[in-house]
């Protein structure tokens, strides 16, 4: 139905109730001539009548300032009235008919009024017996209120109205609030309308009781004659009474903490809570300093000063959990078991500071999570990568606006126990040392078992015992960790995975994880061993298994597309052909071995991503004795070339190459892949052999790789990263690897995959390398015979 809209800002029009609307507003004056007796209108409660003045602006507003429910009313009469300024005015009297729901509000075509599209709000059927019972409750409650306020008039029961209409009458007679009357207008269940009236009367019924009780409790305070004290006491008593509805006072938890005593908090913490609580009482509730004080107290009572989880002390269970989550890593797991065994024997809670270091993707972070799971401890992680501010570690002092505790204290507070496994991830990637302080220096106290018992956060400003926390750090490059910090860490290396280990991890972990992530099952897709080996060998060249997991996931996603398109059937077997179809052409290729090469030697390099074969090339041309070095080489490697060249000059004398030869030739040493920076001393022996091969024109066996630092006496010196370098040699199908004799102990720990596929020869000097690298004996150098002209020129030089 379409009705004329009458907005009112005071009062609510209700069914069967008369309502008077003064015609004082400009909009109501505009439509006054339309309000003839018998005309039906929709009277709706509005927050403001201002939007109804400008019809053009009104059309841009969606139901402006009005509620979605109103009352259909009929004009009964209009009459004169006098306002406070004694000026004649008019008011129109309406009689409510029934509630309506407003569907649309718009300006009339004549643009002289605002109309609404609405529909009558129907009620649910209700039992007359139930409604009569509710009405009797209203009468009883009203009688009780009249006992406190005898001046209230008796209530007349509107017998001429139906039971479903009477709540509107009671709301009008009792003068209930506009919000309550709006709730009645919205409600289409008569029983609920009675409940709304009863609830409103109950609130009024509580008022005299509360006043009486507060007066009794404050009489003793009034006798003291202090007005301020009286007011505070009344407010206190009111808050106590409101606890029935709002719960305990927000500051009551601090008093409760003091009652818990030394079972939960150390004595110095209780003293601090007591001091801050007393200070809080002196501050006003809205005082900014009070909010800071509450935040500080909240942190203190939240911290687990004496709360810890019980460790899982069954070594067999711990070992099983670690084995289930990670394949291999025997040394690392053994160290965790050692810690737990010592803890059980000594009953000491002091934990070591472990640092897991190695290339990316080798399982450092996931191993820390597994340790927490195995020990039945909470796990907290703090990523230190890019952290440059000391206050991230130790917090801000409370004198600063917006001060917060450090990440160590906040992490422990959030986990709820004082003995979690706390992972400090990427400790080698911290920055600092400038204006904001050095976060690495701030970690010195945290990661020292002798000092972290009394760790003091700037915000907390009290010692907190971190000795129960099992700190585990991770790093890729230990050279980036400051020496004082590295000295506090127990270093555990996570090495590059072998091909066999990657195969095992893929079959037992990665494939299962990707099946779950892609919504597949083991019955739908199966990887052959050869296909996994092909992916590892030709599409991923990494120390860990992250890229391997991504490639497996790519294959599964492409299979999912074809499976849903019904292009493939299950079970689907992933073969080498399928790998090439889904992953396209291989990314990596093995080094092409060319026999009888002169001046090219296979060196071995160790990077943060694992081992690599690094060919070293050397050319000798006629010239004036210059040495050229190219290939984006670092200072250490350039020095290593200079040392190797000096030693080759001495070594070459054995083969007839004198100083004149070196002064009449130029030497160029190059390391391919010039865009990749290279540095380190471990290529010294390979550079020496490359120079010697080019000078003596003796071919090198390119199925042999080598590593070792060289000195001026030709000694092959110890190097690092032997495991990664030998794995790279296996991957590139080398047959022999020549290593320094000083690395003998490292060879004992090489995986069987290396020992079974490589012949490892230990060499003490460069001369020990020569028989194993060259394909034939080095010939003695015979200088070319001098022509008569050259002899004559040489004689002249001597005479001069």
CATH class call of the largest domain? Alpha Beta
Distance between the termini: 129 Å
The CATH topology of the largest domain corresponds to Rossmann fold
* Corresponding CATH superfamily of the largest domain: P-loop containing nucleotide triphosphate hydrolases
State the shape.
elongated
What structural class do the secondary elements suggest? alpha/beta
Count of alpha/pi helices: 29
Question: Which helices and strands occur, and which strands form pairs?
Answer:
Layout: E1 2-8, E2 18-22, H1 26-30, E3 40-45, H2 55-58, E4 69-82, E5 88-107, E6 114-120, H3 128-148, H4 166-174, H5 178-186, H6 190-222, H7 227-246, H8 252-260, H9 267-282, H10 288-302, H11 315-325, H12 330-346, E7 354-357, H13 364-375, E8 379-383, H14 391-394, H15 407-415, E9 421-425, H16 439-446, E10 455-456, E11 463-464, E12 470-475, H17 483-486, E13 490-493, H18 499-517, E14 525-527, H19 529-538, H20 546-564, E15 572-574, H21 576-583, E16 597-598, E17 600-607, E18 610-622, E19 627-630, H22 635-651, H23 659-663, E20 665-670, H24 684-696, E21 699-700, E22 704-706, E23 709-710, E24 716-717, H25 722-731, E25 736-740, H26 744-748, H27 752-757, E26 759-763, H28 766-773, H29 788-799
Parallel strand pairs: 1-3, 7-12, 7-13, 8-9, 9-12, 14-15, 17-22, 19-20, 22-25, 25-26
Antiparallel strand pairs: 1-6, 2-5, 3-4, 4-5, 5-6, 10-11, 16-21, 17-18, 18-20, 23-24
Annotation keywords:
800 residues; alpha/beta; Archaeosine Trna-guanine Transglycosylase, Chain: A, domain 4; 29 helices; 18% strand; five-stranded mixed barrel; seven-stranded mixed sheet
